Amino acid sequence: MDSFSNQTINFQELPDYKKTSLTPIAKRYKKIVVFNLILTNLIFLGIAIAAWNFLLEEIEILYKLIGFFTLVLFLILYDFFALMAFKRKSFAFREQDVIYCSGILTITHEIVPYNRLQHVVLKQGWFSRYLGLATIECFTAASANNEIAIPGLELEQAEQIKNMLLNKIINTELTEPPFEADSVDKKINLDTDFTHQNKDIDGAN
Amino acid sequence: MEQINLNLPQRQSKKGLLVIFFKVLIPSIKSFLPLILIFFFRESDEHKTLKISLIFMAVFLFLIITSVINFLYFKFYINSNSNEFIIEKGWLNKSKTVIKLDKIQQVNLNQNFLHRLLNLYAVEVETAGSSKTEGKINAVSGAVAQALKAKLLEKDYSFIEHSGNNENDVDVVNPEFKNNKQLIEISFSSLVKIGLTRNYLQTFSLLLVLFFQIFEKVRDYYRDEEENVISNFGSYLEQNFTLVILPFVLLVFFVVVLIINLIRTLLKYNNYKIQVVNKKLFISYGLFETKNTIIKSQRVQILKITQNYFQKKLNVLMLKILQTDSEDNTSKKGIGIDVPGVNQNEKNAILNQIFNKEIKLENGIKPSIRKFVIHFIWFSIFPTLVYFFISFFNFEIIYLFVTIPLFLLTGLYQWITYKNAFFYFTENFLVKKSGFWDVTYTIIEPHKIQKITTYQRIWHLNLNLGSVVLYTAGGYLSFSIADEEIITNRVNYWLYNIEKQNLNWM
CATH number for the A24-171 domain, one of 2.30.29, 2.30.30, 2.40.160, 1.20.58? Predict the structure, then answer.
């Protein structure tokens, strides 16, 4: 902290990403969440019932029941957290960057500055098309699977955001980092250092 | 050097036909060998040999024809009007690869054993974007390879000079700078030092697996042969294995690990040369497979400096340079280049070239003690208890005593790892110190950050603890867990700088 205190930057004056007011995603997105949950639950229960009837004949009924109830418990917990997680999902498009907040047990803020964006994708599944919702994915040069995906945006709004982001990408012009002239002096010093060192190595060999 | 006109389309070296042939031959041998073997053992025909040799001949002929076609239709040239490097290939399926010269990230000249015999080079052109726009020429003569490399770089110089024109100082500096070459050669003694001190755990675990496999085999063998002297000895070994043999085996293990490490390092990094010109590092190394790489300093995303206790005493360390990785090609993920066995001076010279600023490690932040406590519970106390109960019910009493060293070792590991962990958030660099035996400093520059993720477990909310992950184009850096306010302040500060300065990250 001390090295920063002798500079003019005051942390209190910097825009704080935590204090940004975040917009929750569209309420209708909950329908998609619920639909997905029903589907997942049905698949898991289906597999469990099929296994009960056809595969696990030699196992005692008690163990089967224990297994089944663990699965049900797990599914209930999963559903609960997935529904809670919906409430947390919120976003903000600030002047210079985009923030997406999500997660229940782990609250995550993902932030991408606009001048690091590589490309933007607008996505719609069949159900979200029916509901008029869309997902915006913001890609950077960071390795794959690290894009920000904001679901549950109104289609119109999503289109606007996409155009705005594409505009930002086109208009971003990056400047080269400053080149320090004094490093030439350092270089010369280092050269002499090397000659010493070479002598040492020759002597050792 | 003879004059080579790279602007005209040209084929690879004629001797390169052999290289291309082997390149198609080896994978086809690999895939057909099981088939041929099955055929060989199944069929009990009298004309078996004849048939097989006929098949061989046919396949051989086919491969020769494909490689000749490959060779004839493979052409490369530089279009100096549009500043493009162009590779054409294919007879029926034609393909044309066009690479913009200023997009070229690396030019590698590689030689494997065959290349060495024929005095040829394989040229690989790597770009920053997707892996599709990547050129590879299998075999060209040394002169052509050098000319090509020079040509591809020449454009690059002009590009850099051009971009420097904005500032007047730079123009003055650049010309004299360019002639100021620097050569770092990693001496044989440094390589020996690093070879003896690195990768203990990796090699050790590999050997352990190997050893147990051999041990199983030997035991099976003895079991088959009934009562005789050797089997008696074998069962004696089995019974007293832990007590009599263990120290001896460990010693042999250690020596074998040392020797293998040493040989591997010496072969891989033989004759390691780094030439430093104008913020670029030209690296070449290798005994059987010579590798040539160029690293541009502004492409470097992450730098890792690793050193352990012995290496510190011997004044050697390992550098690893991670550049931008292409998104969809996982095999190339994080193009990392190792620089083994540099000493303090050489390290500083390389860092100076890459970052152009001095790295000061000050104002370190320690992770919260909770990190140690939780790791201690999960990775030390918990496994120890599990082991204790298993051994209590299943094994003889002697195995119970292993619990104590197990607990001590895992505990010590967690404690030292925690002691070594530090984050340094300085103005120009973000540095993470980590490791148990090999202590690593991972360095990134704030303007290379692509994305920032902060996260808080809900049970950390009241404790004001938080974590942050910083993503760059070459990998990520995570800091967990520290005071939430400090992290928020830093994140705000980094964002502010990234957004205000608009610096190029590559």
Answer: 2.30.29
Record: contact A110-B451, CB cut-off 8 A: yes
Q: Looking at beta carbons, which residues of chain A come within 8 Å of B348?
A: 190
Domain ranges of chain A: 24-171
Do you find a cis peptide bond into B481, omega within 30 degrees of 0?
A: yes
Alpha carbons B278 and B164: distance in angstroms, whole number = 12
Is A15's CB within 8 Å of B489's CB?
no
The nearest CA of chain B is from the CA of A142 a distance in Å of 4
Cβ contact (<8 Å) for A181 and B170? yes
Q: Indicate whether this model's pTM tops 0.80.
A: no
Q: Note whether A106 contacts B167, CB cutoff 8 Å.
A: no
Chain A residue with Cα closest to B467: A108
Give me the sheet containing B300-307, strands edge to edge. Answer: B336-342, B317-323, B300-307, B439-444, B430-434, B422-425, B364-365
**Mean pLDDT of the region A11-39:** 88
Chain A residue numbers touching B324 (CB-CB < 8 A): 141
Taking Cα atoms as reference points, which of B172, B155, B158, B170 lies closest to residue B99?
Answer: B155
Q: How far apart are CA B110 and CA B19, in angstroms?
A: 13
- SS3 for B65-118 is HHHHHHHHCCEEEEECCCCEEEEEECCCCCEEEEEEHHHEEEEEEEECHHHHHH
Cβ atoms B65, B126 nearer than 8 A: no
ipTM, 2 dp: 0.79
B126-152 confidence digits (pLDDT tens): 765 544 446 788 888 888 888 887 777
Under 8 Å between Cβ of B483 and B428: no
Residue A129: partners with Cβ closer than 8 Å, 6 or more residues away: none
Q: What is the pLDDT of residues A67-116, one digit of tens each?
A: 889 999 999 999 999 999 988 999 999 888 899 999 888 999 999 999 88
Check A183 against B343: CB less than 8 A apart.
no
Select the highest-mean-pLDDT range: A49-53, A74-78, A146-150, B173-177: A74-78
Q: How far is B384 from chain A (nearest CA, A)?
A: 27
Of B163, B325, B492, the CB nearest to A143: B325
- Distance CA(B362)–CA(B425), nearest Å, equals 8
Which DSSP category does A144 fall into? T
- What is d(CA B459, CA B182) in angstroms, rounded to the nearest whole number? 54
Phi, psi of B363 (to 5 degrees): 55, 45
Residue in B with minimal Cα distance to A16: B492
| Nearest chain B residue to A189, by CA | B349
Residue of B465, B476, B367 lying closest to B423 (CA atoms): B367
Which residue, among B328, B449, B484, has the nearest Cα to A112 in the 3D structure? B449
What are the sequence ranges of the domains in chain B? 16-179, 211-267, 364-501
Chain A contact set for B456 (CB, 8 A):
106-107
CATH assignment of B364-501, among 2.40.100.10, 2.120.10.30, 3.60.21.10, 2.30.29.30: 2.30.29.30
Q: How confident is the model at residue B157 (pLDDT cuts 50, 70, 90)?
A: very low
CB spacing of B473 vs A112 below 8 angstroms: no
